[in-house]
What does this fold into?
Amino acid sequence: MSQDMGDVASATVRRWQLTESLRQLREQAGLTMTEAAEKLKHQPGKWSRSKLQRIETRDQGVKAREVEQLLDLYEVADADLRNWLLGLASTASERGYWLSFQRELPQDFHAVLNIEAELVAQRQFETMVVPGLLQTQDWARAVMAGGSPGVAADVIERRVLARIARQQILTKQHPMKLHAIIEEAVLERPIGTNPVMRRQLERLLDEGKKEHITIQVLPMTAGASPAVDGPFAILSLPDPVPDFGLAEAPGRMVYIEDRDAVREYTLRFGILTERALSPAKSAERLAQAARKYS
It folds into this structure.
């Protein structure tokens, strides 16, 4: 690990990397939260078990000098590791690239937006729409206008631009790896005009040819499967941050950090991967659907 990692990560990712690392270091030192807090009471500052717990769960910020105290307590001698963690602590409050787009997106999506630019991988299953990172501008406009008929055209346009801007994580120098599984019904549900649908399906074909993108179609013949529980995603951030999940609930997005729950979603995605058409067969199905809209 190097200090440079802290310079490029968003504020949310920096906090997550910092607190996850501190938790792991405490456990490696063989200390419970209670034991660590007792030892810290002899150090400058106000320390308690509840404070340490709030730091490790990201409910409370942690200052660089407090990080240094924790590193001393955990007997961390590695200079590079210490410098990296202290660098994270000193920049954890800096705001990220996506802040300017937040007002154009649903409130419950802001937490994900803050870290999306730093994802290294994403596994996503969709039942009703093309994944946002793979949408064309015209298709995005059509689906937003149809899904939110009472929203003004200028608001829709800003949301479309925000969605397209997010797609830079797939085109940057070291792009995120994306594995998307899309229900076959999405291919048959006309959104916008025939040319809009055709270009969207052709976009999926083109994106699926890229080394860092895998696209599979879940056929309707797959029958009962984890698909019945609706769309979800599993997101991966840089080490040492564990994977987390994202699922849809009525009217909102639900962020999932519980590790047992994330493992359950990972298992579901594995089953869907096996039930879905292979990437090659999926490309054939997309091409077939695109011809329908010619």
Q: What stands out?
A: Residues 1-9, 94-105 have pLDDT under 50 and may be disordered.
